[in-house]
User: Fold Diguanylate cyclase/phosphodiesterase with PAS/PAC sensor from Hydrogenophaga taeniospiralis CCUG 15921.
Amino acid sequence: MLGGLLTLAGLALADVLGNRSIGSARNLMFVVVTGAASVVMTGLPEVFFPALPEPLLRVLKAGLGPLAGAMGLYFVGTWLGGVREDGLVHRLTTTGGIVLAVVALALALVATQTDREHFRPLLIAAAAVNLVPVLMAMVAVIRAAQLGDPMARWMALAIVCLGAMVSGHYLHGLQVPGLGLGTQLFTATVTVVFFLIASVLGLLRNRQNRLLARLSRLQAGADPATALPTGSALLTHVEHAFWRTARQHNECTVVCLYLSNLYELAESAGGSVEHQILVTVAARIRRAAGFRCVVGLYHPRCFVVVISADRHQPPVGEVVARLRSMVAQPLTVQSDKQTHHAFLPSLGIGVVTLDPTHAKPMDVLNNAERQALAKVRGPERASEHDIATAPAPL
Assistant:
């Protein structure tokens, strides 16, 4: 059990270092404090550190569990959306958390004045107090599930494991007769299961919040459907790629992928399919090009990829072939009427390889786009407006 808790704490710490967000820090604090409360009740600290003073252990056993319960109750309310989602649940979890924190401090203070012979009733009181946040959290989660929160049902399962965990640890701490190795094994198992479910749910909700925050503050110059740079932002990215490649004395390749039939399903499937196609094609291009290349949207039909080539990277031809193969694959889109339509991208690719030292991004992009258009509008695809005609002789 201790190994599982340390592993989850390490993962939570890695999430904090990687994302540096309040939600990640909250998840780490929850795992550390609640996990410490569980470990204290197992008796492991006395085994690992026999020199620990008994008064300190009594204070930890009496106060750390209720304090972790108060913190967990408040975090559940925050996880459920706080006041912006449900004022009743927010008041329940916030007020309950404050009251439980005060009670936890009171229990800790009483434990400092309690000797070993009179500690059992205080530990029973701590166990009763620690079950209160479990019940309150269950009420809050059930209400959230009824109101439509899709993750609340999984959190309810975690709280069921929490109730079993709290009961098992306090029964073990009180040394209730009749409890054997099976009860300890069950308690350790539900402890790890609870922390695993709660940590995963916390990470998922934090990821959702980060995604919504990123979309809500979509940077200027980014396409709203694909989040790719466009307009002046794209030119800035291309110019920076040229400058970086020129410093390394390498060549740069600009690839334009022109999607000529982007709007062919607009009449039959509705306007929303364009966004689905753009998002899918952008994901395919990013996957084929990798994360080191600049990927942007020159205009809705034209994607841009800037590749900095050196002797350690695969040949540009392989990257272009991979782009052509992945982007040209058919895809399925869903119309406004929930019907599915097949879409086969009609693709033209223009490739310009150059020395970026004195290159101008706009001229290079226009040149690559003209090549892509020429591939799309080849002789076999010329429309009637591209064919030169003359009046018949009299």
